[in-house]
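Example (one chain per record):
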Amino acid sequence: MAIIDFGGTQEKVVTRKEFPIAKARKVLKDEVIAIIGYGVQGPAQGLNLRDNGFNVIVGQAKQFKKDWDRAVKDGWVPGKTLFDIEEAVQRGTIIQMLVSDAAQRAIWPTVKKHLKDGDALYFSHGFSIAYKKLTGVIPPPNVDVIMVAPKGSGTSVRRNFLSGAGINSSYAVEQDYTGRAEERCLAVGIGIGSGYLFPTTFEHEVFSDLTGERGVLMGALAGIMEAQYDVLRANGHTPSEAFNETVEELTQSLIRLVDEKGMDWMYANCSATAQRGALDWKPKFKKAVMPVFKELYKRVKSGEECKRVLKACGAPNYQEQLQKELNEIRDSEMWRAGAAVRALRPKEPAKAITKGTKGVAGRASN
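Predicted structure:
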């Protein structure tokens, strides 16, 4: 493991240098990795592992035709590398539970029945194990229980793999029956294309993940965007101006500077007026939202958010209700304006205007 200083706190992380792909292949040379569920994380992790030379099969319920057909389109062959869930668990030695959290509870009796002595039960989210009293997912004592949680969607896991960048992941060992649980865990983490892996626990992963998704990453971000857009529109700004100032400049410019070198770098590369305003208003926003984040973390830790997920996502009409809520976002003026703005983005980089033989480039002003 490498020891890295994170803002004054030292942490142990595992990089590709300490655990190269050749070592991962050696650790897993006798394993059959069964990807259970071909929805969000399943395709990315399965394809990355397959491309990296591991022995991978997919278990997918046939009644979910869209996911089954996607697996076939991606080259998984029915009866050879693509099976129903029950048979995939029987054939696998590392069982990757990559169906949704609510679905994990539903398929658990089938999975548990076919687990073999020494199998590894793998998760990419701590939900089912951390909230096992609510989910009923209680592994038998004769299997390893491990987790690799990529810090991104399945789409990002696959894109980053194809670009060579990889994606950061946390990892945890909940139960080490074989004495090999950690090396199996790290080997799969490297196999799916992790840039580096940092240790956590199932509880810490799910508490931070649920807080992040409901907070900065998705819930808070969407809510803040809508609030700013609505205020601008109420004060006479056009949809185009309101959307550009709320979303487009963030996603196409500023957040890329944050990604490149950090928030201070982004501030340093903006106008003095923007810097001063941001520095003045940052503490006001922090003070306003801190009570909300404290309430959110309390609900996550107590299991209230888990109960909400299980109840809502387990309802028979959930997909219909979900689509209705997503349609409301898509059909709102703000995101219809977004679709129009995206359609106007240049398809190719602008070419410099040149004069004379020396090629004096034209420069757009801000």
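Caption: Confidence is low (pLDDT under 50) at residues 355-366.
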